[in-house]
């Protein structure tokens, strides 16, 4: 694809060099497919738009909500890319994912969602990476094709599993299905509207092993994110096992604080899978 001036400037600012990345590595973009968005769901918007858009366009995120002029995300991008994006339209901003460091079926950075788009190999040519996450003002950067050193840093780091990823920034538009190798979903969405919508994307749909958390196990982790998300998770689960589909249904009800729901997801993601 043809990149714009800002995209080329950002890639040039990060530069080349570094240790080669193994050719089977992929960039993965995590999201919650059934969260509410503009009268529908996130996945419905992707299917209709045929694009995966940045927080600067959508104003939604499974991380911090700071993608606006002068906000933290704006400042981080200005620093990381030498001001290349300071004056561009939101449509020209990079999108964020993670490089597949550990080759886990649940994806490269489940912290940010139960589903992920596994991007096509060619997208690596316009992707940059850093470690740790850009929220921590990293100093280690590399193009995705030469991120072997960043992968080594991540493998040696002593961090929580939810923070154990190499951040990736994709420059230029992400088109669906052209730039997508596969969409990978949680099995709790089998037989639901999520699966029906996924079939419209035009890319292969795969399934990972799933996130499931028994209420008794959830109750044991009050120290992880505090008592409030544990209590909400138990209320959402009721007599069932907590999974992404139940959490998505709770989010669409609109009765709960999204920031607390995000922490419920952190609990489910961290303690609800045997694929870590």
Automatic annotation (TrEMBL):
InterPro entries: DUF3626. It holds the Pfam family DUF3626. This is Uncharacterized protein DUF3626. It comes from Pseudonocardia kunmingensis.
